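Our consortium's second objective concerns turning raw sequence data into structural hypotheses that experimental partners can test. To show how far this objective has progressed, the report includes one record in full. It was chosen at random from the queue rather than selected for favorable results. The single chain below, 428 residues long, was entered without modification.
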Amino acid sequence: MRIDRRVCAVVLVLASGACSGSGSSTQSGAPGGGATGGTSGGAAGGSSGTVGASGTSGAAGSSTAATGGTSGASGSGAGSGGTANAAGMAGNSTGPVGFCVLGAFSCPCDSGNACGAGLVCTNGTCCDAASGACSSPSSGTGGAGTGGSGSGAGGGSAASGGATACTPGVTGPVITDCGYPFASSNPLTNLTFSENEVLRAISPSGGAPLASVRLFFNDEHALTLGVHRVVVGSATTDYPVSPLVAVPSAQRLPQTGTNLLTGDQSGLDPSGRPMWPALFVTDTTADPNARSGDWQEGGTPWNPNVVFGTWKGAVRTVAAAGATITPDADPAKNNWNLTTGADPVPTGLMNQGFGAEVRWDLVLVPGHTYRIQIMVHDGDQNKTGGDVGEACVDFCAAQGCPTDSPACTDDSECTQIEGATCTNGCCI
């Protein structure tokens, strides 16, 4: 039996309003604390692709229930660099304990047994195609090497207190700027995001066996899906960005160009932010003010599972004065026509000509609260530092499938949704 879930699509232009009956904590605009122990399972070195990148916190104890105690202290250790491309997908990066993105390393395979670049589906799990490794994302592995082993003590039990239970399936109020900018010793917290309004709505739902986070984008230029070419002096290097084969179109596990996070060949804007649509996540169950997974705090950028509508690529040119981004030409306008298989567009959203849905399919821990941060670039890039928007929302994960994604055991049970397959127990 599926649990009834109260889920609302949040229109970002009305960001000050909370969803009715929200049971999750509202994030404040004040700076959050540092990374809490036990939330990172291993090194983020897989994102950088450089040998010798440090492996950050190792696996540590965490609370055993939504009302459990705080996490144990985290260990540390050195890890070696991971796969150069596809950060958060093939890069072996890790998220909070119990968190997975379908198609990512050590996570369940995506629809059609698909996995990210450099990975292969083996017995339902995405494993490294070269080594065959299928290690757990919470085991402390970083990139191609090993991260810290983690020496923290386990978290408290359900009776020990410390965290507040949330109402499963309930979405908190959206914060269009995620509580930034503010001055701190970390210069990233003081960067301005100039295009927050292009994130028209964020709708998370489900939890386990599957959750979905759906972003609805609309602007006067098409969504930037990634950097497909980097020019450094006279040298040109091309990277795959999924082509828009029709208007509108859809692409599962889209290729998002260079996902390197450092160096001339990175896929970043002049301010160091991912040019591709990226999701960042923090488990805030033990600390409602935690932001350790945010981009500003060095969180892992997770690539989307599917994109609908219209999009385009961009060229990154590196010179002595710095990097510049030149977007490709816009395709034909599609408005809010997102093609077959897209989720219903929430009513009342602004239409400026180019619409897209970007969706992440995840596994979350039921009863845990998550801070979800999404970052996207629009298609003109004429503002200093890059035309980029961010928005955050709190979500309490439920036991059940996402909205409009019935539970299933076989593909034959998903015929009511065109093109859907039974993936990790839900029709998507």
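The partners drew two points from this record. The CA atoms of residues 188 and 296 lie 5 Å apart. The first helix runs from residue 45 to 48. Both points have been shared with the crystallography group to help prioritize constructs.
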